[in-house]
Amino acid sequence: MSKLQKLELLKDSLQQAIDRAVSSIGQIHQQIADLPFELLERAGVLSEDKLALRERNRQAATMVYDAIRRINQQIGDLVSDQIENLEDAQHIKRVMEENEDEAAPAPKKKAAAKKAAASKPAARKPAVKKAAAKRAPAKKTVAKAAGKTAGKS
Asked: In this predicted model, what pLDDT tens digit does every residue of 91-145 receive, in sequence order?
């Protein structure tokens, strides 16, 4: 079990514990809040109209504890989403590393080929230039020869 899975399990346990605690506290709160109403009702001081206050008190407490449970659920969902994002990031990292490992040997071969090419002497393309260079002096030589011949006559 990975650390993130353990963290998710811990989050779930904590979230359930908070939910149970909120429910227990809500029930205890209702029992304590009902005590004054019960005493007043036994004494005959509370009329039917005043009993509506008791119901409003229960509704208000229920709304508060429901809000706490809802917040607990939302925080749990947020933490679960973040853990899922971390798991996704780990998976992406593994895939990228695997792809780099597969692609890494190819550039090494190219680098070795470049080193081998650099150590070999460069192929000579000036062969064409040499031929052109041979022709040019040949013309000069013919012109010189013609001039020498003209000068000798």
From this structure: 999 999 999 888 865 555 555 556 655 555 555 555 555 444 445 555 554 445 4
Query: Tens of pLDDT along 42-94?
Result: 888 877 777 788 889 999 999 999 999 999 999 999 999 999 999 999 999 99
Range of the domain at 110: 3-120
- Greatest alpha-carbon pair distance for the chain in Å reads 159
Q: Are residues 82 and 7 in the same domain?
A: yes
Residues 108 and 129 in one domain: no
Asked if 67 and 140 sit in the same domain, the reply is no
Question: CA-to-CA distance for 151 and 153, rounded, in angstroms?
Answer: 6
Rounded to two decimals, what is the model's pTM?
0.58
**Helical residues (DSSP H) of the chain, grouped into ranges:** 3-42, 48-103, 105-119, 127-152
Residues 84 and 30 reside in one and the same domain? yes
Q: Hey, what are 133's tokens?
A: 């260079």
Rounded to an integer, what distance in angstroms lies between the CA atom of residue 102 and that of residue 100?
A: 5
